[in-house]
Predict the structure of Argonaute family member.
Amino acid sequence: MPPRREGGRGGGRGGGDGRAPSQEWRGQEEEFRQGRGRGRGGRNPDGRGQGGREGGGGRGAGAGGGGPSRAPLEAFPPLGDRRQQQIPPETSQRPRTIVSAAGSQRGYGGTPAGPSAPVSSSSTGDVPTSSKALVPPKRPDRGTVGQKVTIRVNHFKMKVKDAPIFHYDVSIHPAVGSKGIARALERQLVSQYRASELNNLLPVYDGSKSLYTARRLPFEQKDFKVTLPEEEGRRAREFKVTIKFAAELDPYQMDLFLEGRGAVLQAPYEFLQALDVALREWPMKSYVPSGRNFFDPSFGRLALEGGFEAWKGFYQSVRPTMQGLVLNVDLSAAAFYEALPVLEFLKKSLPYFDPSRGLSDGDRAKAKNLLNRLKVEVTHRNIPRRYRISGLSLRPTKALTFTTDSGQEVKVVDYFWTTYKHKIQYPELPCLELQGRKTTYLPMEVCKLAAGQKYQGKLNERQTTNMLRFTCQIPAVREQNIKTLMSNVHDFQQNDYAAEFGIQVAKSMTSLHARVLPTPSLRYSSNQITPSDGGWNMMRSRFLRGGVIRRWTLVNFTRLAREDVDAFISELIQRCVAVGVQMDPPVIPPSSGRLEQYDTLLRNAVRNHASKSKPGEGLQLVVCLMDAKHQIYGDLKKLCETELGLVTQVCLKKNVMKEYNSLSQYLANLAMKINVKVGGQNMDLAQDLRLMVPSILGKPTIIFGADVSHPMARDDTSPSISAVVASMDWPSAVKYLARARSQRGRVEMIEHLHDMVVDLMRAFFTHTRLKPERLLFFRDGVSEGQFSDVLNNEVQAIQRAFLTLQPNGDYCPQITFVVVQKRHHTRFFPADNNVVSNNVRPGTVVDTEITHPREFDFYLCSHRGLQGTSRPTHYHVLLDQNGFRADQLQTLVNSLCYTYARCTKAVSVIPPAYYAHLVAYRSRLHVDSVAAGAGSSSARAAAAECRLPEVLPEVRNYMYYC
């Protein structure tokens, strides 16, 4: 680390040491506010020191010379003030515009240049809607950079007859709440009326409100009386099913879209939906459906412990691509409940469950959460019946009564003995409450979980490990299994529904030319490294900028002996120093205690250090040793990050006690995480952003990543968490600050994006003394159906942030907005079987054949797949005011995938999107900790009502989430 030059002290109590801005990032925005800025040399010859809020006379002497102390700005300076912002002269002369509609632009601060309504400058979370919707840009060109290779993709070409499909609305009275019952009604209707009323047509049904036919029915609207016979425990019921003509779906519109002709900008999704439903109808009869997936134990099953088992299955979806319509077919797997008696299931899922003693409050809450909304079958009578659970009774079975039709009050235990000669064995247990118009009870001991029910919750660590082992398949095996699936399950020669709608599907995968992009070189302190096969070894390298750790300690929550802890501390310090981190011995002696005492131990550590240190010199790092992953991890992180202002690093005992070689590798990985958590920089691209794309990234550029984390399935009360990160170190892009907010549950749009963008852009200016002129935004977690909403809401929120930063309207960085998708089922298989690990090579990119027919998107497999089959990441550009060419954006994304701070491998997702995911996960722990603290009865309600605890400046100004 270069020596630090101290600047002159500023006047007043706010004065601080000057700090020359450099391309380094120290993440100490809060110190500037409190007058504790430190002087540091920089590469900028006009480097200016920064002082505190109330000081101002200080003058910093950096490597490039001293500059006046400067208080942080509440708003950006005027665009023309080059003394403050250091922007080249031509920048301020370039007209600034904002896109507010497809193909139209308007200037800030004046009359609109087009018909669009002015964009509001409000700073609230509400986002105005422009008069015209934004649409994604056309593909600028096809990429040419890289070595050409041949791969196969699990897309199967389709042919569809040139004939319309007819769409009908379906309504059922009385309404049914289950797609299974709705489908049973439709099957019964077709069986009963196909020859007489449906002209022998074979309709397909989505289980909700849409029915499709290959030819027009002989009526516009008709009511059908359908009786659903007693089956699987359902009592016979009569329904009125109304079928009403809705639309004629013309394949010509799809042809125009696929060929890029005419004014059809978006795929005719109604036509795609009809094809999807038609191809799902056949497997629907034989397998358990879940969205576009179909499962069956005949494909493979594995017990996962805890009363769950994994089932294999397959996924299918019709997609429009550059080569035409294709059927995307892939393998899939999911966790299901075992078809066990309820008591057996609870014995497996609750470690201390004893039916003879009833349920504790904790087990009762867990049991209710596990069983809620599940279907059960009764075992105490000859006629099978199936019911859905709505909850558990508040009282034990022995205390429950109900009123008969004659008005007599009867005990549940007496009723079962009198009616079924069944003596209740476990009267201390609560009954299952059943869904229905009136409260109905069933003792747990007479109920069995129905087969084929998918588990919607989160698997524990062991279950997840077993699931991954069960589903992990090398590419060659996965490819062969998909081919077998297409030959057997998808035998379209036998598929009556495909024949009815004139659908043909090829039996062979798509073969195409991909490109392998060049591998970027990386810069360390004294050398450069060019990765090989997606990875590299930094054994002889030192971090580009090592952090300085003077004030740290360790808290031991394990039973490790003191000598083992001391040995680990010594080895950690040695390893950190070896890679360039200046790490002193612990400033206070390590402490030990039980994990449940984490609050007391950590607060004591803070107090002990404070009693021996100067004000404002808090602990920089606390290393915590834990036996294993534990629920308290989230509580510990919340305490440290939102109450104590501590950056922490948790280490598991099994890793601390590894043998020498394994321990050395673990310590190297640990050093990478610690260095960025204290403000260091591990490495950088040898070629910075200005040289990669000079015409665009030669201007000050900020790169954002964003993600939204939603509650688990069946949790309808907890909030969603939105997380945004942004780079702070142009012309590099390796250091990111983070912001997070809670918002309404299951809302995908980022509700507080405006506020977070404003905050992070101000931080960028504080760290670089530059105002961004280019903004790249990588948005994770958005499905195709949400593209329009995200584009028109979130882009406008970003644009309003510019107005907040500079209300005169002269400031409008050019935006490139890219959606990052990993949750898709496109897989690459190398045609060359000699490829290492049987996966495609890192840097494999595809922007032809399987991509969008007209929009700017590409698939990139930036990482090396070590296990299973690599999943490429799909990048889809929704807005590009910067005018990237395909090669420019693809090379930039691939290169940045080598800059992830936590490992020496290229990662599969561009780091800002990856970091946003980590921040969302960490913030979810903060919210869950708050909810858990409210007690079991009100935990979920507390989570819904609480605001996300604010991460303190001492933490949020670093990459604490790594």
